[in-house]
Design a protein that fits this description.
- It is a single chain.
- By secondary structure, this protein is of the alpha/beta class.
- Helices cover 40% and strands 12% of the residues.
- The chain has 16 helices and 14 strands.
- The chain has a five-stranded mixed sheet with strand order 2-8-7-6-5, with helices on both faces. It has a three-stranded antiparallel sheet with strand order 9-12-11. Strands 1-10 form a two-stranded parallel sheet.
- Strand 3 (116-119), helix 5 and strand 4 (136-139) form a beta-alpha-beta unit.
- Helix 4 packs parallel to helix 5 and helix 12 (312-331) runs parallel beside helix 15 (423-438).
- The protein binds ligand F0G.
- The site of ligand F0G has 15 residues, from helix 4 and helix 5.
């Protein structure tokens, strides 16, 4: 059989509510043209993020009932720890409430002024945590990642030559670690190859540097390796996952992605003394080491989620549904970042609306149009999110601020929650995006009416230009 189906049937349904075009027009204006400020119940298909938005399985819900809520030494913790040790080979497993809590603990310990942290591409919270510690965050993507049309099979790879140059330039003592994000979210949900991870590991070994993974989407990355990397098609995904983690000294993970849960995170470490210090910080702000700010039931759900996510029928459905969305959009002439990513399709808003200059946020214009037209919520990843604001990037109030700089790419992310939407939902999204694209000349740019100084995309307000 050629047809790929959702490998589950639906036991519980959650109604979604259609709104009328005039209602959406009013709601969008009330939200200041910022879809973060909409109420979720006013959204029909919510593609804002794949993080914490997945559906749990019946076994995960059964685990919720089994959760052991003891403060210390809960049975649920040991089940979780066993599963993570088996999956990743890491001895030291700390639960946290989500990925950024792991990042905060890690960079509080290894970051600090004068330090430099390279990554293939930092996710925004990772960058924020590195910078909050006083360290500098440096992105080292491969050159192919800069071209939305380039179909490199491992477009998420780190630029190994640039990593070597960075180390030569600043000196290895200023790098506390090297980090690789799998899959590369900021770079379009693109995978990193085992070959690239090995090459980065070799550079780290030459300079005595630890290698850490930001492994939120490790299972999707492993499945891409199975499908695309020479010699890997016969390997079980579980073995590829092990190979990836075997190359690393530590990892931060948001379980809200490939943990198939709504909340949770992990910090994985090999170094005993780093583990001791991380445990102390965990206790200080998250909770005791056997619950890390979560309930026992959350640990049960994670233990089960980290089991289900490497099932190959699940991953086949998962990767194929995102690929299907991307390919259908491409054949309808809609410009996307190619090839489609693992968790999301990214529309190339600069090519979508060339008549809107970066200063008027073409990505935000497309986001607004998708909501107006079809009740779909997407997210802008472009000059609203990453463009340096003249105010925010001013070195000092007395110095002349530089001109506001646009983002390198103007993207709109359609992120697919896991096990939530069916193929007919995806077909609806394809139709909606195609129709908005056909009417793209009518889209208008936006300008700020309120511009917050940091992480401005969350709370900014706009008006149409
Ligand atoms: N690293 C990556 C690569 C991520 O994509 C995220 C979250 C995090 C770290 C932080 O994890 O949210 O659990 O604290 N990404 C979400 C997204 C928010 O929409 O892409 P968190």
């Amino acid at each position: 059989m050629k047809t790929i189906i959702e490998p589950f049937r639906i036991k519980v349904v959650e109604p979604i509510r259609m709104t009328t075009a005039p209602q959406r027009e009013r709601l969008l204006r009330e939200a200041g043209f910022n879809v973060f400020l909409l109420k979720a119940e006013d959204v029909l298909i919510d593609l804002l993020t794949d993080s914490g938005t997945g559906a749990m399985s019946s076994e995960q819900w059964a685990g919720i009932m089994r959760g052991d809520e003891s403060y210390a030494g809960a049975k649920s913790f040991y089940r979780f720890q066993d599963r993570i040790r088996e999956l990743t080979g890491f001895e030291h497993v700390l639960p946290t409430h989500q990925g950024r809590a792991s990042e905060r603990i890690l960079f509080e310990l290894v970051g600090g002024p004068g330090k430099v942290v390279p990554n293939n591409a930092h996710f925004d919270t990772t960058r924020a945590n590195v910078e909050h510690s006083g360290a500098e965050a440096v992105d080292l993507p491969i050159p192919e990642a800069r071209d939305p049309r380039n179909r490199h099979p491992f477009k998420g790879n780190m630029n190994v030559a640039e990593l070597e140059r960075l180390i030569q330039r600043v000196g290895p003592e200023r790098l506390p670690l090297v980090m690789v994000t799998i899959t590369n979210n900021s770079g379009g949900g693109q995978p990193v190859s085992l070959e690239n991870l090995r090459a980065v590991r070799a550079v780290c070994d030459r300079h005595g540097l630890p290698l850490f993974l930001d492994a939120c989407r490790f299972a999707e990355n492993a499945f891409f390796i199975k499908r695309r990397e020479p010699g890997c098609d016969h390997k079980p995904v579980a073995d590829i996952v092990h190979e990836m983690f075997d190359l690393a000294d530590g990892a931060t993970i948001s379980a809200k992605k490939d943990g198939l849960v709504n909340i949770g995170g992990l910090l994985l470490l090999r170094d005993e003394s780093l583990f001791q210090r991380a445990s102390s910080l965990l206790i200080l702000t998250e909770g005791f080491v056997t619950y890390g700010g979560l309930a026992g039931r959350d640990l049960e759900a994670m233990a089960q989620g980290f089991e289900e996510v490497i099932h190959e029928d699940y991953l086949t459905y998962r990767i194929r549904s995102v690929e299907y969305l991307g390919e259908r959009l491409l054949s309808a002439g809609v410009p996307i970042l190619e090839p489609p990513g693992g968790h999301a399709v990214y529309l190339d808003a600069a090519a979508f609306c060339p008549h809107i200059p970066p200063a008027q946020f073409p990505g935000q214009a497309v986001v607004c149009a998708l909501y107006r037209h079809a009740g779909i919520r997407a997210v802008e990843i472009g000059s609203v999110m990453f463009g340096a604001s003249a105010k925010a990037s001013a070195p000092h109030p007395t110095q002349t601020p530089p001109d506001a700089a646009p983002s390198r790419l103007e993207l709109v992310r359609l992120a697919m929650p896991r096990r939530v939407y069916t193929q007919s939902h995806v077909d609806y999204v394809i139709e909606a995006v195609t129709e908005v694209h056909q009417r793209r000349q009518a889209l208008r740019g936006l300008r700020f009416t309120y511009e917050p100084p940091v992480l401005r995309h969350f709370t900014a307000r706009f008006e149409e230009a």
